[in-house]
Amino acid sequence: MDVGQGDALLIQKDGQNMLIDAGENKYGKTVYDYLQKNGVTKLDYVIGTHPHSDHIGGLDDVINGFEIGKVIMPKVSHNTKTFEDVLVAIEKKGLKITSPVVGDSYDLGEAKWTVLAPNGEKYDNLNDYSVVIRLEYENNSFLFTGDAEKQSEEEILKGDISLASEVLKVGHHGSASSTTDDFLERVNPKTAIISLATDNSYGHPHKEIIEKLEKNNIKTYRTDTHGTIVASGDGKTITFEINNFSKEDPQSSAKDSREYIGNKNSQVFHSKECNQLPQEENRVYFKDKKQAKDQGYRPHSVCIP
Ligand SMILES: [Zn+2]
Ligand SMILES: [Zn+2]
């Protein structure tokens, strides 16, 4: 999900749902709305990767808003109101926090996810407490790293849990303090996803990370330029769709998903390849056929979208 400078990821499989982080406090409603829109009523798992506000900020809204199964958070506290709010929400619901144990696996429908970090008990850097998990379903695999940095990556590399993943959620918003050469080599992803805001004050993503991804021919999607990113795996291949769900300006990212083109006057919609497309000024764009039909548009009889 595009939550500006922060992380929020929804994973759905066979009617089960899992949320990893929920962005800053102010994005609580954004995350809540996105989950609702995607038919979530229960979150089987909620992971708060580590107590920084850009990860756990919106969690209280989510915990209050849905039925919750397991809440997984690392064994570390943080003296902030945001962190307190999350603990209060957990307690009010009578939930308990499950500590991540490296090697533990959980089912999400027919998919399975495994905890890879944190491996230690004590870190100087809160980011290294990040819960890192690898999710797999048949031949599809994803690695979600939170803000884990070099130290945690090195510890993961020493472990014997398989690390290779087709999709990598790049650590710490593309900061150079994460994604070491060794780590990237072992994960060996085809696609990378970076979650961050445009013009953030940290200079993320750092140039060296982008160069590293390019050098390794890793296709990269970024929430600052692409908005919300949807990856769908069928057990064989993973396909990506850039969603036009965006927190600030839904129109700005809609242009990335101009799959179908409608004619405002005739209320007919076309596939974008049709050779009878309407004049620019009469066009309206849809991301999918459902959106076009929901707005009362009929499919064009020639291109039959
Ligand atoms: Zn962060
Ligand atoms: Zn952090």
UniProtKB/TrEMBL annotation:
A Gene Ontology BP annotation from the UniProt entry: DNA repair
UniProt source species: Irregularibacter muris
Gene3D superfamilies registered for this protein in UniProt: DNA Methylphosphotriester Repair Domain, Ribonuclease Z/Hydroxyacylglutathione hydrolase-like
Keyword set includes Transferase: no
Domain Metallo-beta-lactamase: residue ranges: 5-198
Recorded GO MF terms: DNA binding; methyltransferase activity; zinc ion binding
UniProt protein name: MBL fold metallo-hydrolase
CDD domains: ComA-like_MBL-fold
One Pfam family this sequence matches: Lactamase_B
InterPro entries: Ada-like_dom_sf, Ada_DNA_repair_Zn-bd, ComA-like_MBL, Competence_DNA_uptake, Metallo-B-lactamas, RibonucZ/Hydroxyglut_hydro
Keywords per UniProt: Activator
The UniProt record lists the keyword DNA repair: no
